[in-house]
Structures are given as C-alpha cells and as structure tokens.
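Below is a filled-in request sheet from our internal design queue. Each sheet records the structural input a requester submitted and the sequence that came back. We keep these sheets so that new team members can see what a complete request looks like end to end.

REQUESTER: design group, bay 2
PRIORITY: normal
MODE: inverse folding
CHAIN LENGTH: 189
BACKBONE (tokenized):
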C-alpha cells in the first residue's frame, strides 16, 4: 500500500497550530532511555510519553503520528539546500522501501516552498510522505536551544515514545540498527 493510501486510511485530526503536544496516556512501565546522539542531546521531546504530532503533508492528507501506533516511525528532517541531506537521501529511500510492514518513514521539510520540495522529491524518487513545517513553528520547538541542524532523524517506538534522535547524516546501516533497537525496546520492557 502506498503512503497516500495509508494516510487516507488513517484517522487524521487537524491541529489548530500544527504544534507538538503530548498524549495524556502514560506507559505502564518506564520506556528504555532513548538513544539520543549528538553533543548534549539534540531534542527537547519528552522521553517516556507518546508524542502526538500533526502536520500538513506535501500533496497529501495530514500526517498524524498517533495514527501509526504499532509501527516504528522515522521522521527525517531535511532542507533541500542541505548538502548532507542530499547525500543521505538515497539511504533513506532504500531504507523506507525495505520495511513497508512495520516501519513508516516520513520526511519533514523546514520552511521551504512546496515547488522546491516537489522537485527534491522527484530528484530522489521519494516514495514516502513529506510533512511541511512551512512556518517553522514545529521544528523550532524540537531542537534543544532552537539550534537548527540538518539533517536530523527522530525515531519513535511502536508505542509512540522517543527511541532515538540523531543530528547529522546517517547511512543505511545506522537506519537498520536504530530500527532494530526501536523494535526491541518494547519487547524488552
């Protein structure tokens, strides 16, 4: 099933401001500490509560993170002008195509025009949805100290809690390793 069909089948609820919020549910056992990489951590997202994240999608229905409970979700934050983002993109596409059953990949663009992002999507033949942070409201609240760096990948476990945040480009082996860690985290807890 393609990403558009998956989104159309998902229950999408519009967010008033498109911001980041947490869901009131609490995990019965504390979730394992996320694999937060980078100097002094890179994200201000809570570690042990499911995240509710709703955003517009380029040429598609709204993205609602909570609609993907039961799957590992990778959010790959990029900018079309970013050299490391361009270098990393083929690995992200290969990874997304390799795991259609238990893993969802969503690109997230920061403050760029739709036509520019469409050209980027076409250039790399991106098969997954691209969420659009058109006004930059969401990502400014995600980075610690609002220090923006691209690319960044945020991984959520099947229960919607943070598994990993990585600042910088990654290769296919990294994506596979973090997928396995996110899948195993709930099994171990």
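RETURNED SEQUENCE:
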């Amino acid at each position: 099933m393609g990403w558009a069909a998956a989104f159309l089948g998902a229950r999408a609820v519009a967010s008033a401001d498109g911001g980041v919020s947490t869901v009131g549910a609490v995990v019965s056992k504390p979730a394992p500490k996320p694999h937060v990489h980078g100097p002094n951590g890179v994200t201000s997202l809570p570690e042990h509560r499911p995240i509710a994240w709703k955003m517009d999608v380029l040429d598609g229905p709204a993205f609602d993170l909570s609609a993907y409970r039961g799957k590992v979700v990778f959010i790959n934050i990029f900018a079309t002008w970013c050299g490391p983002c361009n270098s990393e993109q083929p690995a992200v596409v290969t990874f997304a195509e390799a795991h259609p059953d238990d893993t969802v990949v969503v690109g997230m663009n920061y403050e760029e025009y739709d036509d520019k992002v469409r050209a980027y999507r076409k250039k790399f033949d991106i098969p997954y949805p691209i969420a659009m942070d058109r006004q930059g409201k969401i990502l400014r609240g995600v980075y610690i100290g609002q220090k923006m760096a691209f690319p960044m990948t945020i991984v959520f476990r099947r229960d919607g809690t943070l598994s990993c945040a990585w600042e910088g480009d990654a290769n296919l082996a990294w994506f596979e390793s973090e997928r396995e860690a996110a899948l195993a985290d709930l099994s171990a807890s």
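SHEET NOTES:
- Confidence is low (pLDDT under 50) at residues 1-34.
- The radius of gyration is 15 Å.
FILED BY: M.R.
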